[in-house]
Design a protein that fits this description.
single chain, alpha/beta, Rossmann fold, 2 domains, six-stranded mixed β-sheet, four-stranded parallel β-sheet, 12 helices, globular, disordered C terminus, binds 4'-deoxy-4'-aminopyridoxal-5'-phosphate, pyridoxal phosphate, TrpB-like_PALP_sf, Cys_Synth/Cystath_Beta-Synth, Cysteine synthase family protein, TrpB-like_PALP
Length: 344
């Protein structure tokens, strides 16, 4: 038999088809079967690779992008990294307008991936011409053939997950999934995945995870924007102070809120017990699972899929730093001796 070279054409080939991994330890005492969709297996280490690739390829299909075109977005987070990665392979310029609140590490990481980063003042309103929203919008409007990803208000964000994450989970669970639990930021992940899954089986329960300090849960319940819900919180990438159109609130049955503190401890617990080094929102998602289990949501026949959006390495100076945890007061209610004993 002739042996062929087994190689991928490029890194974009590796986007999607992430593994579903059974959770065995962190689930002790919970009724049901629990599986994590581990999005850190994407080459850019997060679920955002899916939307970056999909939105850029849709623009190519529509003939908007030409070699050397620019792609604009307003994030220093996972989406920025994914867009930078896709842009390198496809030969576009990636321009990211971020706020001066973004950490130096994040900005360095984006520049390392070839992005041009504009650091804009954080203390100005969104409609100020210096704000990162205004800068991105202006760059897009003034540049022919540019694409503005605009993830919070782009229907293609939902579509990316409808076409990939949903079908993958349906196949991986052999259609036996009973519950989907996912954090909601732009809402693209949960909405697109839920739309696909509910078309296959409308009885699947879809539960979104929101942060205290965010308006999403209240909006889902009342369909009204309540600004009194808004206050600062620590978890990055989930919850919001506005209502994104990339969230299909009708596809979500319920929202659960989790605290910064419990989400941080749960992420650390997942890393230590499952050997899965996960990001902050993965902790939030599994914290929601624990709360739902306490409320009697699951039984022995439940097959629960929980989305773990990114990798722990992005949170070394946050939840994986004992100093940071201490500064937040997150160790105040924890017996450190007990925590230490678990470590060895
Ligand atoms: N977790 C992390 C770490 C994220 O960066 C995001 C994206 N903002 C989410 C969760 C939420 O995903 P989505 O935007 O698709 O709702």
């Amino acid at each position: 038999m002739k042996e062929e070279i087994q190689a991928h054409d490029d890194i974009l080939d590796l986007i999607g088809n992430t593994p579903l991994v059974r959770l065995r330890k962190v689930t002790e005492g919970l009724e049901g079967n629990f599986y994590a969709k581990v999005e850190a297996f994407n080459p850019g280490h997060s679920s955002k690779d899916r939307i970056a690739l999909h939105i850029i390829e849709e623009a190519e299909r529509k003939g908007i992008l030409k070699p050397g075109s620019i792609i604009v977005e307003t994030t220093s987070g996972n989406t920025g990294f994914s867009i930078a990665m896709v842009s390198i392979i496809k030969g576009y310029e990636c321009v990211l307008a971020v706020t001066s609140k973004s950490s130096k590490d994040k900005i360095d990481m984006l520049r390392a991936m070839g992005a041009k980063v504009y650091v804009c003042p954080a203390n100005v309103s969104a409609d100020d011409p210096r704000s990162y929203y205004s800068v991105a919008k202006r760059l897009h409007e003034e540049t022919n053939g540019s694409v503005y990803i605009n993830q919070y208000f782009n229907e293609l964000n939902i579509d990316a997950h409808y076409q990939t994450t949903g079908p993958e989970i349906w196949k991986q669970t052999a259609g036996k999934i009973t519950h989907l639990i996912a954090c909601s930021g732009t809402g693209g992940t949960i909405s697109g995945t839920a739309r696909f899954l509910k078309e296959q089986n409308p009885n699947i329960r879809v539960i979104g995870v929101d942060a205290f300090g965010s308006v999403l849960k209240k909006f889902h319940e009342t369909r009204e924007f309540d600004s009194s819900e808004i206050y600062p919180y620590r978890i990055e990438g989930m919850g919001k102070n506005l209502i994104p159109t990339a969230t299909d609130f009708d596809a979500i049955d319920e929202f659960v809120k989790v605290t910064d503190e419990e989400a941080a401890h749960t992420a650390r617990q997942i890393s230590k017990t499952e050997g899965l080094f996960v990001g902050y929102t993965s902790g939030a998602a599994f914290q929601a699972v624990k709360q739902l289990a306490e409320g009697g949501e699951f039984d022995a026949n439940s097959n629960v899929v929980v989305i773990f959006p990114d990798h722990g390495s992005r949170y070394m100076s946050k939840i994986y730093s004992d100093d940071w945890m201490n500064e937040q007061g997150f160790f105040d209610n924890v017996n450190r001796e007990e925590e230490k004993q678990i470590e060895f």
